[in-house]
Amino acid sequence: MDYKKTNAPLNTTTRDLVKMAEPTGNIYETVCIIAKRSNQIAGEMKHDLEKKLQEFASLNDNLEEISENREQIEISRYYEKLPKPTLIATQEYLEDKIFWRNLATDKNLD
Asked: Among 12, 3, 30, which residue's Cα sits nearest to residue 88?
Protein backbone atom coordinates (compact mmCIF):
# COMPACT_ATOMS: atom_id res chain seq x y z
CA MET A 1 0.00 0.00 0.00
CA ASP A 2 1.31 3.40 -0.92
CA TYR A 3 0.72 5.48 2.18
CA LYS A 4 1.27 8.67 0.19
CA LYS A 5 -1.89 8.07 -1.86
CA THR A 6 -4.24 7.13 0.96
CA ASN A 7 -7.59 8.73 1.56
CA ALA A 8 -7.17 8.58 5.33
CA PRO A 9 -8.29 11.68 7.23
CA LEU A 10 -5.65 14.07 8.53
CA ASN A 11 -7.43 14.48 11.86
CA THR A 12 -8.63 11.90 14.31
CA THR A 13 -12.29 11.02 14.09
CA THR A 14 -14.61 9.23 16.46
CA ARG A 15 -15.24 5.63 15.46
CA ASP A 16 -17.74 3.06 16.67
CA LEU A 17 -15.46 0.30 17.96
CA VAL A 18 -18.28 -2.20 18.25
CA LYS A 19 -19.09 -1.78 14.56
CA MET A 20 -15.39 -1.90 13.64
CA ALA A 21 -14.98 -5.14 15.61
CA GLU A 22 -17.67 -7.01 13.66
CA PRO A 23 -15.24 -8.74 11.23
CA THR A 24 -13.13 -10.14 14.07
CA GLY A 25 -15.79 -10.41 16.74
CA ASN A 26 -13.37 -8.97 19.29
CA ILE A 27 -12.54 -5.31 19.95
CA TYR A 28 -9.12 -6.17 21.39
CA GLU A 29 -8.18 -8.21 18.32
CA THR A 30 -9.31 -5.38 16.04
CA VAL A 31 -7.19 -2.86 17.91
CA CYS A 32 -4.19 -5.23 17.78
CA ILE A 33 -4.56 -5.68 14.03
CA ILE A 34 -4.70 -1.92 13.46
CA ALA A 35 -1.76 -1.35 15.85
CA LYS A 36 0.44 -3.91 14.11
CA ARG A 37 -0.33 -2.46 10.70
CA SER A 38 0.31 1.02 12.05
CA ASN A 39 3.77 -0.06 13.24
CA GLN A 40 4.51 -1.46 9.77
CA ILE A 41 3.46 1.79 8.10
CA ALA A 42 5.49 3.88 10.57
CA GLY A 43 8.56 1.77 9.81
CA GLU A 44 8.07 2.25 6.07
CA MET A 45 7.64 6.00 6.48
CA LYS A 46 10.71 6.28 8.69
CA HIS A 47 12.82 4.27 6.25
CA ASP A 48 11.70 6.40 3.29
CA LEU A 49 12.34 9.66 5.14
CA GLU A 50 15.79 8.58 6.30
CA LYS A 51 16.68 7.47 2.77
CA LYS A 52 15.68 10.84 1.34
CA LEU A 53 17.42 12.84 4.07
CA GLN A 54 20.60 10.75 3.74
CA GLU A 55 21.41 12.74 0.60
CA PHE A 56 21.79 15.87 2.71
CA ALA A 57 23.98 14.37 5.42
CA SER A 58 27.55 15.56 5.53
CA LEU A 59 30.31 13.61 7.18
CA ASN A 60 32.09 16.52 8.82
CA ASP A 61 29.30 18.43 10.59
CA ASN A 62 30.29 21.24 12.88
CA LEU A 63 27.89 23.10 15.10
CA GLU A 64 29.20 26.31 13.63
CA GLU A 65 28.61 25.22 10.05
CA ILE A 66 24.94 24.33 10.28
CA SER A 67 23.15 25.59 7.21
CA GLU A 68 19.55 25.44 6.19
CA ASN A 69 18.74 23.42 3.14
CA ARG A 70 15.45 24.34 1.53
CA GLU A 71 14.94 20.92 -0.06
CA GLN A 72 15.53 19.15 3.24
CA ILE A 73 12.98 21.37 4.97
CA GLU A 74 10.40 20.75 2.23
CA ILE A 75 10.85 16.97 2.48
CA SER A 76 10.41 17.11 6.24
CA ARG A 77 7.29 19.26 5.92
CA TYR A 78 5.82 16.88 3.37
CA TYR A 79 6.18 13.94 5.77
CA GLU A 80 4.77 15.98 8.65
CA LYS A 81 1.62 16.71 6.61
CA LEU A 82 0.92 13.06 5.83
CA PRO A 83 -1.76 11.32 7.89
CA LYS A 84 -0.48 9.55 10.99
CA PRO A 85 0.21 5.81 10.64
CA THR A 86 -2.66 4.91 12.98
CA LEU A 87 -5.12 6.83 10.81
CA ILE A 88 -3.81 5.16 7.65
CA ALA A 89 -4.02 1.71 9.27
CA THR A 90 -7.54 2.37 10.51
CA GLN A 91 -8.63 3.47 7.04
CA GLU A 92 -7.06 0.35 5.50
CA TYR A 93 -8.92 -1.79 8.04
CA LEU A 94 -12.23 -0.11 7.28
CA GLU A 95 -11.68 -0.60 3.54
CA ASP A 96 -10.80 -4.32 4.05
CA LYS A 97 -7.28 -3.83 2.69
CA ILE A 98 -5.62 -5.61 5.62
CA PHE A 99 -5.27 -9.38 5.62
CA TRP A 100 -5.05 -11.06 9.00
CA ARG A 101 -5.62 -14.43 10.51
CA ASN A 102 -5.81 -15.78 14.01
CA LEU A 103 -3.93 -19.06 14.21
CA ALA A 104 -5.72 -20.03 17.42
CA THR A 105 -9.15 -19.89 15.80
CA ASP A 106 -8.27 -20.68 12.18
CA LYS A 107 -10.06 -23.91 11.30
CA ASN A 108 -8.32 -24.34 7.93
CA LEU A 109 -5.00 -25.29 9.52
CA ASP A 110 -6.13 -28.79 10.61
From this structure: 3
